[in-house]
Amino acid sequence: MKATRSIYACEECGEGSAQWLGRCPACGAFGTMREERKEPARGRAASSKRAPIQMKQVGEEPLRVEVGIAELDRVLGGGGVPGSLVLIGGEPGIGKSTLLLQAAGSLTKHGFRVLMVSGEESASQIASRAKRTGTTSPELYLLCETDLEEVIERARELQPHILVIDSIQTMRFPGVDSSPGAVNQLKECAFRLQELAKEIDAVTFVVGHVTKEGALAGPRLIEHIVDCVLYFEGERFDSLRILRAAKNRFGSVSELGIFEMTDAGLREVEDPSAHFMDRRDRPVAGTSRVVVMEGRRPLVVEVQALVAPSKLPTPKRIASGIDHRRLAIEVAVLERKAKVRLGERDVYVGVSGGLKVAEPALDLGVCMAIASSHRDIALPLDTIFLGEISLTGEIRPVSRTEERLREAARLGFGSFVISSKSKPRNVPTGIRIHREPDISSSLVRFGLG
Ligand code: TYD
Ligand code: MG
């Protein structure tokens, strides 16, 4: 048997193979298989000395370090856990470094020592970002370094409460002879950082860049090594940023943090519903209002539709922010079940605020907005539509109806169209609820039938 055997690993997803393949059998990416040396043996001496402990001696709730940025703390599950590894993924330029710098600034204000390691930027670049966001503190230490062994040494000396590694794709562990960002390097660096986080008991944030398709470049492998995976998302041309948990060993994954990128860094959006609503003075044809659940938070958003004569044999159905297959179904149901003739019409549908919604609860609102644009009749501004539409045209109840009603009522919406099968309890006082069995009856109610 050979001592070391070369294997090939996919740079995208980390799938291993004994021979080279043109296409990765796991993720289907082409030309991503690279030769990797076997990993060097890892010293596990420190951890093997740990003695077993009785379960009853273990506290249930981990200690938390509150960052002081509420939107971030909530997504983390109430703050960072010392000794844990948090991966923050996002496209380049979305604001990961800014978020972590502001987090570092807030933490130092509360007396924590923070070490920020950057493999991408010079100290002066970071300092200029710090100036822009108003982050200065003597307890904030910078280290521009890509050699992970060196980083580990410095962190041991400094003993920070919080360690930030920006980014893992630029780090190189000297014992591994592949380039930074390669599968073996990422794995090794993630393991070393996990050991370090436990050893110095620091909340460790690790930045990971994602590709256009939204996959963490390379390290789907390191997702299982880290304790928490957060994604920072948003559109380049929009200032809105959403922080989402994809995995959290210490909290729920249905939490969401909402920020806005401003000239002075990221600002928390305290009333997201108000932010997502295009406040109108008068009703406009082709718009409807709905409440979506983003994680556990109800958000009021506006659906906008435009129906226009088509010059194409196959008219366009263009969805932005909602699923295009869902839109195809909604258009078909309108055609067949409600006699809204869209066969020679292009249909465009979007959601305000650059949000991406995957909920069927949006169906009724989308159908109403399309019909409203088609007939050029505006829907009342104070009305919220909540319902999933089945292929038969029936309106089905949606989950968490009460929470959605409460959020919209808080913002002053007084009228609701819901499924006739839905029987919400604890309805806010002063609102009117209209129960409709199907899409046709809802259209008739608003003069669109
Ligand atoms: P950055 O945090 O460097 O992104 P990442 O680390 O994810 O690559 O943020 C980059 C973008 O944010 C850049 O295009 C400029 C913008 N920005 C602002 O609009 N305002 C600010 O105060 C800062 C610091 C950045
Ligand atoms: Mg950055």
Notable characteristics:
449 residues, alpha/beta, Rossmann fold, 3 domains, nine-stranded mixed sheet, four-stranded mixed sheet, 12 helices, 21 strands, binds thymidine-5'-diphosphate, ATP-binding
Topology readout:
Layout: E1 7-10, E2 16-17, E3 33-36, H1 45-48, H2 70-76, E4 85-90, H3 96-109, E5 114-118, H4 123-133, E6 140-144, H5 148-158, E7 162-166, H6 183-200, E8 203-209, H7 220-223, E9 228-233, E10 240-248, E11 256-262, E12 265-268, H8 272-276, E13 287-294, E14 297-309, E15 317-320, H9 324-338, E16 345-351, H10 363-375, E17 383-385, E18 388-389, E19 395-396, H11 401-410, E20 415-419, E21 432-436, H12 439-445
Parallel strand pairs: 4-8, 4-9, 5-6, 5-7, 7-8, 15-16, 17-20, 20-21
Antiparallel strand pairs: 1-2, 1-3, 9-10, 10-11, 11-12, 13-14, 14-16, 18-19
Helix pairs in contact: 5-6, 9-10
Instruction: Determine the number of helices (DSSP H or I, runs of at least 4 residues).
Output: 12
**Mean pLDDT, nearest integer?**
88
Enumerate the distinct ligands. Answer: thymidine-5'-diphosphate, magnesium ion
> What structural class do helix, strand and pairing data support?
alpha/beta
Distance between the termini: 77 Å
Portion in beta strands: 25-35%
Main beta-sheet strand count, sense and barrel state: 9 strands, mixed
Model regions low in confidence, pLDDT < 50 over at least 5 residues: 39-48
Give me the Rg, rounded.
26 Å
What is the CATH architecture term of the largest domain? Answer: 3-Layer(aba) Sandwich
CATH-assigned homologous superfamily of the largest domain: P-loop containing nucleotide triphosphate hydrolases
Number of discrete domains: 3
CATH class of the largest domain, please?
Alpha Beta
Form type? globular
Helix content: 25-40%
- How many beta strands in the DSSP annotation? 21
Major beta sheet, strand line-up: 6-5-7-8-4-9-10-11-12
Family: Belongs to the RecA family. RadA subfamily.
Binding site for ATP: 90-97
GO cellular component, one term: cytosol
GO molecular function, one term: ATP-dependent DNA damage sensor activity
